[in-house]
Protein backbone atom coordinates (compact mmCIF):
# COMPACT_ATOMS: atom_id res chain seq x y z
CA UNK A 1 0.00 0.00 0.00
CA UNK A 2 1.28 3.42 -0.94
CA UNK A 3 1.25 5.76 2.09
CA UNK A 4 -1.23 8.62 1.78
CA UNK A 5 -0.08 12.19 1.18
CA UNK A 6 -0.42 14.61 4.06
CA UNK A 7 -2.63 17.66 3.41
CA UNK A 8 0.50 19.76 2.93
CA UNK A 9 2.00 17.27 0.46
CA UNK A 10 -1.30 17.09 -1.40
CA UNK A 11 -1.37 20.89 -1.80
CA UNK A 12 2.25 20.98 -2.87
CA UNK A 13 1.82 18.14 -5.34
CA UNK A 14 -1.22 19.88 -6.90
CA UNK A 15 0.87 23.04 -7.40
CA UNK A 16 3.66 21.09 -9.14
CA UNK A 17 1.12 19.26 -11.30
CA UNK A 18 -0.51 22.59 -12.24
CA UNK A 19 2.85 23.96 -13.35
CA UNK A 20 3.51 20.86 -15.47
CA UNK A 21 0.03 21.13 -16.98
CA UNK A 22 0.80 24.73 -17.94
CA UNK A 23 4.07 23.71 -19.58
CA UNK A 24 2.31 20.93 -21.49
CA UNK A 25 -0.30 23.38 -22.75
CA UNK A 26 2.41 25.88 -23.79
CA UNK A 27 4.20 23.10 -25.69
CA UNK A 28 1.03 22.24 -27.62
CA UNK A 29 -0.19 19.25 -25.60
CA UNK A 30 2.90 17.09 -25.02
CA UNK A 31 6.31 17.36 -23.36
CA UNK A 32 9.17 14.83 -23.45
CA UNK A 33 9.52 12.69 -20.34
CA UNK A 34 12.88 14.34 -19.67
CA UNK A 35 11.14 17.72 -19.35
CA UNK A 36 8.51 16.22 -17.04
CA UNK A 37 11.23 14.74 -14.80
CA UNK A 38 13.13 18.02 -14.83
CA UNK A 39 10.04 19.95 -13.68
CA UNK A 40 8.97 17.36 -11.10
CA UNK A 41 12.44 17.32 -9.52
CA UNK A 42 13.90 20.77 -10.15
CA UNK A 43 11.22 23.39 -10.96
CA UNK A 44 12.36 26.42 -8.93
CA UNK A 45 10.65 26.48 -5.52
CA UNK A 46 8.40 23.55 -6.40
CA UNK A 47 10.35 20.51 -7.64
CA UNK A 48 11.23 17.64 -5.33
CA UNK A 49 14.84 18.78 -4.90
CA UNK A 50 14.00 22.49 -4.95
CA UNK A 51 11.33 22.42 -2.24
CA UNK A 52 11.44 21.43 1.39
CA UNK A 53 10.43 17.78 1.93
CA UNK A 54 12.56 15.55 4.19
CA UNK A 55 13.77 13.35 1.30
CA UNK A 56 16.68 11.42 2.88
CA UNK A 57 16.83 9.23 5.97
CA UNK A 58 14.36 6.93 7.74
CA UNK A 59 11.80 9.76 8.08
CA UNK A 60 12.14 10.62 4.39
CA UNK A 61 11.64 8.81 1.10
CA UNK A 62 14.82 6.77 0.76
CA UNK A 63 18.02 5.82 2.55
CA UNK A 64 21.40 6.05 0.82
CA UNK A 65 24.59 4.15 1.69
CA UNK A 66 26.08 6.98 3.79
CA UNK A 67 22.80 7.02 5.76
CA UNK A 68 22.89 3.24 6.22
CA UNK A 69 26.33 3.29 7.79
CA UNK A 70 29.34 5.49 8.42
CA UNK A 71 31.44 2.49 7.39
CA UNK A 72 30.65 3.47 3.80
CA UNK A 73 32.02 7.00 4.18
CA UNK A 74 35.08 5.76 6.08
CA UNK A 75 35.91 3.55 3.09
CA UNK A 76 35.40 6.46 0.66
CA UNK A 77 37.66 8.56 2.92
CA UNK A 78 40.40 5.98 2.73
CA UNK A 79 40.31 6.14 -1.07
CA UNK A 80 40.35 9.95 -0.90
CA UNK A 81 43.36 9.87 1.44
CA UNK A 82 45.36 7.96 -1.16
CA UNK A 83 44.75 10.76 -3.66
CA UNK A 84 45.19 13.59 -1.16
CA UNK A 85 48.52 12.29 0.14
CA UNK A 86 50.33 15.26 -1.40
CA UNK A 87 47.55 17.76 -0.49
CA UNK A 88 44.51 18.83 -2.48
CA UNK A 89 40.81 19.53 -2.22
CA UNK A 90 37.49 17.69 -2.35
CA UNK A 91 34.39 18.72 -4.27
CA UNK A 92 31.24 16.78 -3.42
CA UNK A 93 28.25 17.04 -5.75
CA UNK A 94 24.84 16.51 -4.13
CA UNK A 95 25.79 15.96 -0.49
CA UNK A 96 22.34 14.98 0.86
CA UNK A 97 22.25 15.45 4.64
CA UNK A 98 26.01 16.11 4.80
CA UNK A 99 26.62 12.90 6.72
CA UNK A 100 29.11 11.49 4.22
CA UNK A 101 31.02 14.79 4.15
CA UNK A 102 31.19 14.88 7.94
CA UNK A 103 32.49 11.32 8.27
CA UNK A 104 34.97 11.74 5.42
CA UNK A 105 36.36 14.90 7.02
CA UNK A 106 36.61 13.28 10.46
CA UNK A 107 38.33 10.23 8.97
CA UNK A 108 40.76 12.34 6.95
CA UNK A 109 41.55 14.41 10.04
CA UNK A 110 42.38 11.19 11.89
CA UNK A 111 44.63 10.12 8.99
CA UNK A 112 46.34 13.53 8.89
CA UNK A 113 45.11 14.03 5.31
CA UNK A 114 42.54 16.82 5.60
CA UNK A 115 41.84 18.55 2.29
CA UNK A 116 42.61 22.27 2.05
CA UNK A 117 38.94 22.74 1.17
CA UNK A 118 35.79 20.59 1.05
CA UNK A 119 33.37 22.23 -1.36
CA UNK A 120 29.75 21.10 -1.70
CA UNK A 121 27.74 21.72 -4.84
CA UNK A 122 24.09 21.37 -3.90
CA UNK A 123 20.95 22.21 -5.87
CA UNK A 124 18.58 21.81 -2.93
CA UNK A 125 18.44 24.82 -0.59
CA UNK A 126 16.74 22.72 2.03
CA UNK A 127 19.41 19.98 1.93
CA UNK A 128 22.14 22.64 1.97
CA UNK A 129 20.61 23.88 5.25
CA UNK A 130 20.71 20.37 6.69
CA UNK A 131 24.33 20.05 5.56
CA UNK A 132 25.23 23.35 7.27
CA UNK A 133 23.65 22.15 10.51
CA UNK A 134 25.39 18.77 10.36
CA UNK A 135 28.82 20.07 9.39
CA UNK A 136 28.56 23.04 11.74
CA UNK A 137 28.95 20.55 14.62
CA UNK A 138 32.43 19.50 13.51
CA UNK A 139 35.48 20.92 15.31
CA UNK A 140 36.34 24.38 14.07
CA UNK A 141 39.58 23.31 12.38
CA UNK A 142 37.57 20.95 10.20
CA UNK A 143 34.35 22.90 9.62
CA UNK A 144 36.23 25.97 8.45
CA UNK A 145 37.34 24.02 5.38
CA UNK A 146 33.77 23.45 4.17
CA UNK A 147 32.24 25.80 1.59
CA UNK A 148 29.02 25.65 -0.43
CA UNK A 149 28.80 26.39 -4.11
CA UNK A 150 25.78 27.09 -6.25
CA UNK A 151 27.70 26.39 -9.44
CA UNK A 152 30.83 24.57 -10.45
CA UNK A 153 34.08 26.28 -9.40
CA UNK A 154 35.80 28.30 -12.10
CA UNK A 155 39.22 27.32 -10.79
CA UNK A 156 39.92 23.61 -11.37
CA UNK A 157 40.98 21.63 -8.30
CA UNK A 158 43.61 19.02 -7.60
CA UNK A 159 42.13 16.27 -5.50
CA UNK A 160 38.86 14.36 -5.50
CA UNK A 161 35.37 14.91 -6.91
CA UNK A 162 32.66 12.78 -5.28
CA UNK A 163 29.07 12.05 -6.32
CA UNK A 164 27.04 9.40 -4.53
CA UNK A 165 23.58 8.80 -6.00
CA UNK A 166 23.51 11.96 -8.08
CA UNK A 167 23.79 10.62 -11.63
CA UNK A 168 20.55 8.68 -11.20
CA UNK A 169 18.70 11.95 -10.58
CA UNK A 170 19.68 13.53 -13.92
CA UNK A 171 16.53 13.81 -16.04
CA UNK A 172 16.51 11.12 -18.73
CA UNK A 173 14.71 10.49 -22.02
CA UNK A 174 12.31 7.57 -22.27
CA UNK A 175 11.70 5.66 -25.46
CA UNK A 176 9.89 2.66 -26.81
CA UNK A 177 10.88 0.60 -29.87
CA UNK A 178 8.67 0.15 -32.92
CA UNK A 179 9.94 -1.59 -36.03
CA UNK A 180 13.52 -1.22 -34.83
CA UNK A 181 13.18 2.54 -34.27
CA UNK A 182 12.92 4.44 -31.02
CA UNK A 183 9.85 6.58 -30.40
CA UNK A 184 10.23 9.14 -27.63
CA UNK A 185 7.86 8.83 -24.68
CA UNK A 186 6.46 11.93 -23.14
CA UNK A 187 3.60 13.24 -21.11
CA UNK A 188 0.21 14.65 -22.09
CA UNK A 189 -2.90 15.58 -20.17
CA UNK A 190 -5.22 12.66 -19.63
CA UNK A 191 -8.18 14.45 -21.15
CA UNK A 192 -6.62 14.73 -24.62
CA UNK A 193 -7.75 11.66 -26.58
CA UNK A 194 -5.26 9.50 -28.47
CA UNK A 195 -5.56 6.12 -30.10
CA UNK A 196 -2.50 4.45 -28.58
CA UNK A 197 -2.23 5.98 -25.13
CA UNK A 198 -1.10 3.78 -22.30
CA UNK A 199 -3.31 2.85 -19.38
CA UNK A 200 -4.68 5.89 -17.52
CA UNK A 201 -2.72 6.67 -14.37
CA UNK A 202 -5.16 6.61 -11.48
CA UNK A 203 -6.59 10.02 -12.11
CA UNK A 204 -3.41 12.09 -11.70
CA UNK A 205 -4.27 13.94 -14.87
CA UNK A 206 -1.21 12.83 -16.86
CA UNK A 207 -0.73 10.11 -19.38
CA UNK A 208 2.38 8.66 -20.97
CA UNK A 209 2.28 9.04 -24.73
CA UNK A 210 4.60 8.57 -27.66
CA UNK A 211 5.87 11.57 -29.60
CA UNK A 212 3.67 12.32 -32.57
CA UNK A 213 0.75 10.30 -31.20
CA UNK A 214 -1.40 13.27 -30.21
CA UNK A 215 -4.42 14.22 -32.27
CA UNK A 216 -3.18 17.78 -32.88
CA UNK A 217 0.26 16.63 -34.07
CA UNK A 218 1.97 19.07 -31.70
CA UNK A 219 4.67 16.63 -30.67
CA UNK A 220 7.35 15.80 -33.17
CA UNK A 221 8.53 12.30 -33.78
CA UNK A 222 11.72 11.69 -31.77
CA UNK A 223 14.11 14.58 -32.09
CA UNK A 224 17.43 14.18 -33.84
CA UNK A 225 19.57 13.96 -30.73
CA UNK A 226 17.50 11.12 -29.31
CA UNK A 227 17.17 9.41 -32.70
CA UNK A 228 20.92 9.33 -33.31
CA UNK A 229 21.72 8.32 -29.72
CA UNK A 230 19.25 5.42 -29.75
CA UNK A 231 20.32 4.33 -33.25
CA UNK A 232 23.94 4.19 -32.06
CA UNK A 233 22.82 2.28 -28.98
CA UNK A 234 20.90 -0.31 -31.01
CA UNK A 235 23.85 -0.80 -33.39
CA UNK A 236 26.28 -1.62 -30.65
CA UNK A 237 24.18 -3.84 -28.36
CA UNK A 238 25.11 -7.53 -28.51
CA UNK A 239 21.48 -8.70 -28.82
CA UNK A 240 18.54 -7.13 -30.68
CA UNK A 241 15.82 -5.65 -28.50
CA UNK A 242 12.22 -6.83 -28.90
CA UNK A 243 9.30 -4.82 -30.30
CA UNK A 244 7.75 -2.62 -27.62
CA UNK A 245 10.96 -2.53 -25.58
CA UNK A 246 10.87 0.53 -23.33
CA UNK A 247 13.80 2.10 -21.57
CA UNK A 248 15.66 5.26 -20.63
CA UNK A 249 18.68 7.04 -22.02
CA UNK A 250 20.31 9.92 -20.19
CA UNK A 251 21.69 12.41 -22.67
CA UNK A 252 22.58 14.81 -19.87
CA UNK A 253 25.45 12.63 -18.69
CA UNK A 254 27.88 14.01 -21.29
CA UNK A 255 27.37 17.75 -20.56
CA UNK A 256 27.27 17.06 -16.82
CA UNK A 257 30.53 15.14 -17.01
CA UNK A 258 32.12 17.80 -19.21
CA UNK A 259 31.32 20.44 -16.58
CA UNK A 260 32.80 18.34 -13.78
CA UNK A 261 35.84 17.20 -15.76
CA UNK A 262 36.74 20.82 -16.42
CA UNK A 263 36.92 21.27 -12.62
CA UNK A 264 39.58 18.59 -12.13
CA UNK A 265 43.15 19.48 -13.09
CA UNK A 266 44.63 16.43 -11.38
CA UNK A 267 43.22 13.63 -9.27
CA UNK A 268 40.21 11.37 -9.16
CA UNK A 269 36.44 11.41 -9.55
CA UNK A 270 34.45 8.76 -7.71
CA UNK A 271 30.98 8.17 -9.12
CA UNK A 272 28.83 5.83 -7.06
CA UNK A 273 25.34 4.82 -8.11
CA UNK A 274 23.07 1.95 -8.97
CA UNK A 275 23.64 1.00 -12.55
CA UNK A 276 25.08 -1.37 -15.08
CA UNK A 277 27.39 -1.56 -18.06
CA UNK A 278 25.41 -0.84 -21.25
CA UNK A 279 25.01 -4.42 -22.50
CA UNK A 280 23.36 -5.41 -19.20
CA UNK A 281 21.39 -2.19 -18.83
CA UNK A 282 19.71 -2.69 -22.22
CA UNK A 283 19.16 -6.42 -21.76
CA UNK A 284 16.32 -7.79 -23.93
CA UNK A 285 14.52 -9.03 -20.82
CA UNK A 286 14.50 -5.61 -19.13
CA UNK A 287 11.40 -4.71 -21.17
CA UNK A 288 10.10 -1.83 -19.05
CA UNK A 289 13.29 0.10 -18.31
CA UNK A 290 14.84 1.11 -15.02
CA UNK A 291 12.77 4.08 -13.86
CA UNK A 292 12.15 4.02 -10.10
CA UNK A 293 10.31 6.38 -7.77
CA UNK A 294 10.87 6.66 -4.03
CA UNK A 295 8.15 7.81 -1.67
CA UNK A 296 8.25 7.29 2.09
CA UNK A 297 10.53 4.24 1.78
CA UNK A 298 8.35 2.65 -0.92
CA UNK A 299 9.91 1.95 -4.31
CA UNK A 300 7.60 1.90 -7.33
CA UNK A 301 7.61 2.74 -11.04
CA UNK A 302 4.86 5.34 -11.44
CA UNK A 303 6.28 8.85 -11.92
CA UNK A 304 2.78 10.28 -12.48
CA UNK A 305 1.65 10.01 -8.87
CA UNK A 306 2.90 12.00 -5.86
CA UNK A 307 4.30 14.54 -8.32
CA UNK A 308 6.85 16.85 -6.70
CA UNK A 309 6.86 14.96 -3.41
CA UNK A 310 8.60 11.78 -4.55
CA UNK A 311 12.03 11.14 -6.02
CA UNK A 312 12.25 9.94 -9.62
CA UNK A 313 15.40 8.11 -10.67
CA UNK A 314 16.76 5.90 -13.43
CA UNK A 315 19.63 3.45 -13.27
CA UNK A 316 22.95 4.65 -14.62
CA UNK A 317 24.41 3.35 -17.90
CA UNK A 318 28.03 3.29 -16.71
CA UNK A 319 29.30 2.77 -20.27
CA UNK A 320 27.82 6.19 -21.09
CA UNK A 321 29.54 7.70 -18.04
CA UNK A 322 32.87 6.15 -19.07
CA UNK A 323 32.50 7.37 -22.68
CA UNK A 324 31.67 10.88 -21.51
CA UNK A 325 34.66 10.92 -19.16
CA UNK A 326 37.10 9.61 -21.76
CA UNK A 327 35.95 12.23 -24.24
CA UNK A 328 36.92 14.85 -21.61
CA UNK A 329 40.43 13.42 -21.31
CA UNK A 330 39.82 11.36 -18.14
CA UNK A 331 40.87 7.77 -17.75
CA UNK A 332 38.61 5.05 -16.34
CA UNK A 333 40.93 3.83 -13.62
CA UNK A 334 38.49 1.60 -11.76
CA UNK A 335 35.02 0.08 -11.99
CA UNK A 336 33.62 -2.47 -9.57
CA UNK A 337 30.64 -3.31 -7.40
CA UNK A 338 30.09 -1.37 -4.18
CA UNK A 339 30.81 -4.56 -2.21
CA UNK A 340 34.21 -5.00 -3.91
CA UNK A 341 35.05 -1.32 -3.41
CA UNK A 342 34.24 -1.45 0.31
CA UNK A 343 36.20 -4.67 0.80
CA UNK A 344 39.17 -3.13 -1.05
CA UNK A 345 38.87 -0.03 1.11
CA UNK A 346 39.10 -1.87 4.41
CA UNK A 347 35.51 -2.29 5.60
CA UNK A 348 36.41 -5.57 7.33
CA UNK A 349 39.26 -3.87 9.18
CA UNK A 350 36.97 -1.03 10.33
CA UNK A 351 34.53 -3.63 11.57
CA UNK A 352 37.22 -5.58 13.40
CA UNK A 353 38.35 -2.40 15.17
CA UNK A 354 35.07 -2.13 17.07
CA UNK A 355 35.54 -4.12 20.25
CA UNK A 356 32.27 -3.24 22.00
CA UNK A 357 29.94 -6.21 21.42
CA UNK A 358 26.78 -4.19 20.97
CA UNK A 359 28.41 -1.72 18.61
CA UNK A 360 30.06 -4.54 16.68
CA UNK A 361 26.72 -6.28 16.16
CA UNK A 362 25.16 -3.04 14.92
CA UNK A 363 28.03 -2.35 12.54
CA UNK A 364 28.00 -5.93 11.26
CA UNK A 365 24.33 -5.53 10.40
CA UNK A 366 25.02 -2.27 8.60
CA UNK A 367 27.94 -3.83 6.72
CA UNK A 368 25.67 -6.64 5.52
CA UNK A 369 23.28 -4.08 4.05
CA UNK A 370 26.12 -2.37 2.23
CA UNK A 371 27.77 -5.58 1.03
CA UNK A 372 25.22 -8.29 0.33
CA UNK A 373 24.28 -8.87 -3.33
CA UNK A 374 20.56 -8.80 -2.52
CA UNK A 375 20.97 -5.47 -0.71
CA UNK A 376 23.28 -2.69 -1.98
CA UNK A 377 26.42 -4.71 -2.68
CA UNK A 378 25.94 -5.52 -6.35
CA UNK A 379 23.34 -3.16 -7.78
CA UNK A 380 25.55 -0.23 -6.79
CA UNK A 381 28.78 0.32 -8.69
CA UNK A 382 31.77 2.55 -8.10
CA UNK A 383 33.62 4.15 -10.99
CA UNK A 384 36.97 5.95 -10.66
CA UNK A 385 37.87 8.50 -13.32
CA UNK A 386 41.40 9.86 -13.18
CA UNK A 387 43.28 12.79 -14.57
CA UNK A 388 47.04 12.70 -14.35
CA UNK A 389 46.85 10.21 -11.47
CA UNK A 390 48.03 6.69 -12.10
CA UNK A 391 48.64 5.10 -8.69
CA UNK A 392 46.98 1.71 -8.17
CA UNK A 393 43.76 2.42 -6.28
CA UNK A 394 43.16 0.47 -3.05
CA UNK A 395 39.39 0.54 -3.47
CA UNK A 396 39.57 -1.22 -6.83
CA UNK A 397 42.13 -3.88 -5.93
CA UNK A 398 39.52 -6.58 -5.28
CA UNK A 399 37.63 -6.46 -8.58
CA UNK A 400 38.09 -4.95 -12.04
CA UNK A 401 34.92 -4.82 -14.15
CA UNK A 402 36.24 -2.36 -16.74
CA UNK A 403 36.13 -5.02 -19.46
CA UNK A 404 32.35 -5.12 -19.09
CA UNK A 405 31.93 -1.47 -20.06
C1 LIG B 1 19.79 10.83 -3.81
S1 LIG B 1 20.45 12.24 -3.06
C2 LIG B 1 22.05 11.63 -2.53
C3 LIG B 1 22.62 12.42 -1.40
C4 LIG B 1 23.98 12.01 -0.86
N1 LIG B 1 24.99 12.01 -1.88
C5 LIG B 1 23.89 10.65 -0.22
O1 LIG B 1 24.41 9.70 -0.78
O2 LIG B 1 23.29 10.55 0.85
C6 LIG B 1 20.84 13.26 -4.41
C7 LIG B 1 21.60 14.53 -4.02
O3 LIG B 1 22.02 15.20 -5.19
C8 LIG B 1 21.51 16.52 -5.21
N2 LIG B 1 21.31 16.80 -6.62
C9 LIG B 1 20.35 16.33 -7.42
N3 LIG B 1 20.57 16.74 -8.68
C10 LIG B 1 21.71 17.47 -8.67
C11 LIG B 1 22.45 18.18 -9.66
N4 LIG B 1 22.04 18.22 -10.93
N5 LIG B 1 23.57 18.82 -9.27
C12 LIG B 1 23.98 18.80 -7.99
N6 LIG B 1 23.31 18.15 -7.01
C13 LIG B 1 22.20 17.51 -7.35
C14 LIG B 1 20.27 16.45 -4.33
O4 LIG B 1 19.85 17.67 -3.83
C15 LIG B 1 20.78 15.51 -3.25
O5 LIG B 1 21.61 16.18 -2.32
Summary keywords:
single chain; 405 residues; eight-stranded mixed β-sheet; five-stranded antiparallel β-sheet; 14 helices; 21% strand
Number of DSSP E strands: 16
End-to-end CA span? 38 Å
* Tally of helical runs: 14
**Unreliable runs:** 215-219
Mean pLDDT: 93
The percent range for strand residues is 15-25%
Principal-axes shape call: globular
- Rg, rounded, reads 22 Å
The helicity comes to 25-40%
The hetero molecules present are: S-adenosylmethionine
What series of H and E elements makes up the topology? HEHHHEHEHHEEEEEHEHEHEEEEHEHHHE
Secondary-structure class: alpha/beta
Biggest sheet overview: 8 strands, mixed
Describe this protein's structure:
It is a single chain. The protein has 405 residues and is α/β, with parallel strands linked by helices. Helix content is 35%, strand content 21%. The protein contains 14 helices and 16 strands. The strands form three sheets. Strands 2, 3, 4, 5, 10, 14, 15 and 16 form an eight-stranded mixed β-sheet that branches. Strands 1, 6, 7, 8 and 9 form a five-stranded antiparallel β-sheet that branches. It has a three-stranded antiparallel β-sheet with strand order 12-11-13. Strand 11 and strand 12 form a beta hairpin. Helix 4 crosses helix 5 and helix 9 crosses helix 11. The longest helix is centred in the N-terminal third of the chain and has 20 residues. It is globular. It starts with 6 loop residues before the first helix and ends in an 18-residue tail after the last strand. About 1% of the residues have low confidence. Bound molecules: S-adenosylmethionine. The site of S-adenosylmethionine (SAM) has 19 residues, from helix 3.
Amino acid sequence: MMPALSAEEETHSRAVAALIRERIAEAGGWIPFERFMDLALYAPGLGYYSAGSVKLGPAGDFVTAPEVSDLFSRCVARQCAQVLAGGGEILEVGAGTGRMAAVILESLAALGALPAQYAILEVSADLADRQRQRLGKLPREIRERVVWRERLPERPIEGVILANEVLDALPCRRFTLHGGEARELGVAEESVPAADERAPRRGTGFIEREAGADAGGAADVADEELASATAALLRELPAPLPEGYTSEICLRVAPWMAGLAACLSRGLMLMIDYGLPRAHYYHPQRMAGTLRCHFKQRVHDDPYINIGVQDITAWVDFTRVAEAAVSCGLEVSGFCTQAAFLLGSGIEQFLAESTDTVEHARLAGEARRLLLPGEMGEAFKVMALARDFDAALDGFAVQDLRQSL
